[in-house]
Amino acid sequence: MLVRKTSLLPVSACTKLTLRSASGWAEADLIKDVLKAVGVPLIVTGTNHFEKNNAVMKHIAETFAGENLLLNWAETDNYRTITAAAMGYNHCIVAQAPIDVNMSKQLNILLTNMGVAPKKIVIDPYTGALGYGLEYTYSVMERIRTSAFAGNAMLAMPMVTAPGYEVARTKESKAPVSAFRMTYVDLSSDPRCMDGYVKAMFLPHTDSDQFPGLATALGNQKKGTPAISGIAVT
């Protein structure tokens, strides 16, 4: 087993990128304290800034050599430095691809071509925050796992994803409570609402007074006058 499920404790390495001294980063002290407190491998998440992320991850990988950290993340446009650090200091690596089965497979191939053992890779299929993005991510995860069961070794790695990170970036997560206040209306308490809805479901409509144009067309058809184009009466 690569990393026990109970041992996945996220630690952000992107909240402090200030160099404390010429020999170390403030993040290394934070990770050291957490490792002492929990005694299990950690997920260390970087930043979207490639240059800073590579510098921080390389230092952390070296500082905690052999701790089997899960370095999060490598992607197609930025994977060589982090991958080399993970290999050199015996860590695992998250391979993140943008919600696409083929891109996930290709990134895993790139990592293994560099010499990373498949058991050291965790797939992150990425995710949208809400709605279609979340549902689509789940379908991609299903396809990745189905491909693995069918014998695709490059998609047989464990998976991890962080929808909370995406959700935290949405405007709703930062909106004040007042933005979500709304008046509750019990539509079922007045049967006229449902009556109106049911009437609108039929053609011809049951209440012709509400549709004078349709009433005229139906009357003309009965008298033998051509009906309005597009309206057929059976």
Structure in words:
- The protein is an alpha/beta fold and 234 residues long.
- Helices cover 41% and strands 12% of the residues.
- The chain folds into 2 domains: 5-176, TIM Barrel (Alpha-Beta Barrel); 183-234, no CATH class.
- The chain contains 9 helices and 7 strands.
- The strands form 2 sheets. The chain has a 5-stranded parallel sheet, with helices on one face. Strands 2-3 form a two-stranded antiparallel sheet.
- Helix 2 packs parallel to helix 3.
- The termini are far apart.
- The model is unreliable at 1-24 and 227-234 (pLDDT under 50).
SSE blueprint:
Elements: E1 9-12, E2 19-21, E3 24-25, H1 26-38, E4 42-45, H2 50-63, E5 70-74, H3 80-88, E6 92-96, H4 101-113, E7 121-124, H5 132-149, H6 163-167, H7 171-174, H8 191-200, H9 212-222
Parallel strand pairs: 1-4, 4-5, 5-6, 6-7
Antiparallel strand pairs: 2-3
Helix pairs in contact: 2-3
- Give the CA-CA distance, first to last residue: 68 Å
Overall shape: it is elongated
Q: Give a quick account of the main beta sheet: strands, pairing sense, barrel closure.
A: 5 strands, parallel
CATH fold label of the largest domain? TIM Barrel
What is the topology, as strand order, of the major beta sheet? Answer: 1-4-5-6-7
| Strand portion | 5-15%
- Average residue pLDDT: 75
The number of domains is 2
Helix share bin: 40-55%
Task: Flag low-confidence runs.
Answer: 1-24, 227-234
CATH superfamily (homologous) name of the largest domain: Dihydropteroate synthase-like
Helix and strand succession? EEEHEHEHEHEHHHHH
Protein traits:
single chain, 234 residues, alpha/beta, TIM Barrel, 2 domains, two-stranded antiparallel sheet, 7 strands, disordered N terminus
